[in-house]
Amino acid sequence: MTASHPVAETRAGSTDRFGMEWSRYAELRSAYRAQLLDWITPLTLADFRDTTVLDAG
Known about the structure:
Elements: H1 6-24, H2 30-40
């Protein structure tokens, strides 16, 4: 596969976009915490203490 192939261009751009998102949207807002707590219910943050979590999404 060459760099001019559309799939290769998309993959190369994905890394740049991922880094840009972390640079641009690095602020953790209280709404994000509320959203996380809603997603993990019935678990709590304490359930994740001393664990490793893989975010594969």
